[in-house]
Amino acid sequence: MEIIDNKLIGELLVKAVASAQLRQNLDLRTSGADGSQRMLNALLPGTRVPIHRHPESTENVLLLQGKLAEIFYEEERLGDGFERVVLDAAAGRFGCVVPAGVWHTVEVLEPSVIYEAKDGKYGEDGSEAL
User: Fold this and answer.
1) pLDDT tens digits, one per residue of 59-91
2) What is the gyration radius of the CA atoms in the chain, in angstroms?
3) pLDDT above 70 for 9
4) Nearest alpha carbon to residue 114 among 50, 37, 31
5) Beta-bridge partner residues of 27
6) Spatial CA neighbour of 16 closest among 50, 59, 46, 61
7) Whether the predicted pLDDT of 26 surpasses 90
8) What count of other Cβ atoms lies within 10 Å of the Cβ of residue 22?
């Protein structure tokens, strides 16, 4: 059994600090045969998440700790975010649902840990990045 608590979150954040990408994820799938994506993702300010989309899957993002902004883009205006949703655990804004096919990225405002869930295996789900 995996317990998601302050100890686990702290360990993920320590690993993110040591990572050149300033982030660390933990796969929560039950096996390699599990056809979904379910993970914890520890993200630090300064990490770069490319603008991307998941044409075949809705993405669920739940913030467990910290503060970040999900930035959404229109197809015609990929350089300018058209909607910015700030998720802030302290303010009670815990998550969002990213519709299939919507271009998006994240800006990390303070050390954060999110739970992400999508359909389809990573790398096989049709995701596209700019």
Assistant:
1) 999 999 999 999 999 877 777 778 999 999 999
2) 14
3) yes
4) 37
5) 39
6) 46
7) yes
8) 17
- Closest by CA position to 106, among listed 52, 53, 69, 64: 69
CA 99-83-79 angle, to 5 degrees, is 100
Structure tokens at 76: 């015609």
Predicted TM-score of the model (pTM): 0.90
Residues in the chain: 130
The three-state (H, E, C) secondary structure of the chain, written as one string: CCCCCHHHHHHHHHHHHHCCCCEEEEECCCCCCCCEEEEEEEECCCCCCCCEECCCCCEEEEEEEEEEEEEEECHHHCCCCCEEEEEEHHHCECEEEECCCCEEEEEEEEEEEEEEEEECCCCCCCCEEC
